Amino acid sequence: MSKQEILLETGTNEFEILEFHINEKAKEENKTEKNFFGMNVAKVVEVIESPNLESNNYSVNPCFLGTIPLRDAVLPVIDLSIWLGMEREKHDHENIIVTQFSNSIQGFLVSGVVEINRLNWKDLIPPGDFIRKLNTKSIIGMVDKGEYFIQLLDLEHIVSDLNPGSIEELWKTEVKTDKAYKVLVVEDSPTIRKMLEKNLVNSNFQVTITNNGAEAEKYLTDVKNQAEDENKSINEFVDIVISDIEMPLVDGFTLTKRIKEDTKLQKLPVVLYSSIITNELRHKGESVGANFQVSKPDMNQMAEMAIKLIEGRQSSIEN
């Protein structure tokens, strides 16, 4: 599966997921329950057959099954069923999904792969109380397939949970702004929201947080209307938008496109961030008008770049 084959037109709010399943031992004897999950195809490199790795007592985490050679790389393999708290029904010819994101490569052991589904982010149901009792922080949302639900996994949360503190350490910054600029943050993950808010508040930003692109659109519409009613500039309410890309309802690409197409909002700087931002895929953010793009391992750049974009815009207005 090549990256070129999975690229979608940017700003249409579409994405593709690789659907897979984990077979779980049911309470009834000799019964197996098939649970369906998905991950963003943009993070998938390939699918290989598992060499039947077994967890050992020497692992730092029971989810870690060890490493296997993969061409010129060494691939660490994570047993998803253990991390999700499931007792997997083992069988021959299981699969390892090889992924690459946040400048790291890892494999996830699953029972089997089903197919690729093209979806719209508005069709992704945000996680709620009806989700089965898994670690729900790892579930971005649900896709209704009619006969069953696909649970879309937050792979970054899973990987960071296996190495606690690593992301927060990477996000530290000493940058501070003299003026308390107003930033709108758009992020569906509670963990990332908390860390990003801490990062920006420490840099002297006034932070408003929305959970997804749909909420951000409503907030910006309200701000636009208020600014018009009070004959004020948009920048008296918000100076910059910082948004994740992968979100239910409205993704970051689509949000950015709509901001840049709005005559009242289009001068707002927009920073996009994601673990799927690579040199090869930066053109997607550029095509919708993003002013800057940050890969999640480089989030320590966020505050500094936000200040530069705001002050650069102010300088151009003054001149």
Model description:
With 319 residues, the protein is of the alpha/beta class. It has two domains: 3-162, CheA-289, Domain 4 (OB fold (Dihydrolipoamide Acetyltransferase, E2P)); 166-318, Response regulator (Rossmann fold). Helices cover 26% and strands 31% of the residues. It is built from nine helices and 15 strands. The strands form three sheets. The chain has a five-stranded mixed β-sheet with strand order 8-1-2-10-9, with no helix packed on it. It has a five-stranded mixed β-sheet with strand order 3-6-7-5-4. A five-stranded parallel β-sheet has the order 12-11-13-14-15, sandwiched between helices. Strand 11, helix 5 and strand 12 form a beta-alpha-beta unit. The chain is elongated.
Summarize the structure.
It is built from 9 helices and 15 strands.
